[in-house]
Design goal:
It contains 18 helices and 16 strands. By secondary structure, the protein is an alpha/beta fold. An eight-stranded parallel beta barrel has the order 1-2-3-4-5-6-7-8, surrounded by nine helices. Strands 11-12-13 form a three-stranded antiparallel sheet. A three-stranded antiparallel sheet has the order 14-15-16. Helix 3 links the parallel strand 3 and strand 4. Helix 6 crosses helix 7 and helix 16 runs parallel beside helix 17.
Amino acid sequence: MPKATELYDTTLRDGTQGEHINLSVQDKLLITEKLDEFGMDYIEGGWPSSNPKDEEFFLKVRNLRLSHSKLCSFGSTARSLANIENDPNLQGLLQSETPVITIFGKTWKAHTVKGLGISEEENAELIYRSVSFLRSHGREVFFDAEHFFDGYKDDPEFALRMLRSAADGGASRLVLCDTNGGSLPGEISDIVRSVHENTGRPIGIHSHNDGDLAVANSLAAVIAGATHIHGTINGIGERCGNANLISIIANIMLKMDGRFNFVEHLTQLTSLSKFVYEILNMPSDGKAPFVGKSAFAHKGGIHVSAVMKESSLYEHIDPKLVGNRQRVLVSELAGQSNIRYKAQELGIELPEKGELLKTIVHNIKELEHKGYQFDGAEASFELILHRELGNFAPYFDVLETKVYIESSKDSKNVDQAVLKVAVGSEIEHIAADGDGPVNALDKALRKALIRFYPQIKTIRLVDYKVRVLEEKRGTSAKVRVLIETGDGKETWGTVGVSTNIIEASLQALSDSMNYHLFSVRAAVPGAVGAAAAEQ
């Protein structure tokens, strides 16, 4: 594999078509930043003409400063040959102002004749003119050949003619789509090889997982000459999902001696997978290859004995290569390397060896065992490290919490939070009303602290998620609350866990404010202030 393979992520568009998948605009922005940080070549943000959410995303994403990725908008060819220039879909794509535009067109004769009701010549012209119109406005255009493999198997000449029309129009990538997800790796290899010989343009692959072969089909396409891969993080998507980029990336780099343009640290792969699951408010897939909790887990007997002597006897790769860790279920092993890597990523120096590092690892593992999840809540993780290193002490202490919930059919419900908060040597008793108990807590905590710490005026709650951790326990189950907070310049995540959703929310809120105050090095009033100022 002499050339770098291009990574095209469609988590934010094709991934959101999966059942139970829903992303807010803020969610999409957070994932965009994470994908760029990881090193994706292209990020498909959505279909700007299809819904207001995607239109808002394309407006707000312009404020992000991406280091590696090019943003793409997605849409279809024009609806009619008589109205190419004024086609609402093509105009919407141009108005998204992305440097790359991906459009799909029909390459299966049955879809063209029966679905669109047009001739072969008209479809070829529609593809050509749609691509060339977008190219004339200075955009790079990728062509998604919808249902290509089914179309090729039905009528190779028709399918290839449509590809040539896109290439003649100026498409820089011809992406072959296994839209129904029913092709086999051998078929994919043969067809990709034939297309590569007949077009002379860079070939991409877009696989769906209906036959549980999306990853295998994507890799088969690469072996046959494809240099551009579409997929989603964790394989999310419609029906059975899309090709899982997590597995594709690991296989190409570790098994096929391949490379990508910007991906350097495979150790971030597990973190990326968990981050996206957390943003989606979904539990991670423990059995996911490479990054799942069980991917390198061993239990009892011969396996454990062998792994303790030589891990490669029962592990196809070193789990640390993908940011995962080996687990022996009868006696869990501490993951010092994971914590050390995360600390380095945050710019925190940990001791090379000694009891302090062991204590930190032990405490983190204890928290994880209780249900805390720090992917997506890095601010809470950073505070823990600083507290263990003696660099941080909380800026306040919530001594008492009372929440009153009002419910009435005849009037608007207003909840109230009453807090007793210690700041230095002073005690504040504060009450605040809110739209729901969490909003009341947030308002009361701000009200108690604003006199001491005016810095919190700039921060706002951006997102709030709740996950039930022990579903079988019903209403007595633990919950994990993940909060995203921002100050207009950056955002940070914090976490709380409890059987009491109010307590878990307060933990996450407190961490959020402590993190901001620590970041700006706020001074604590009274005797504690001197110590804080020295930090």
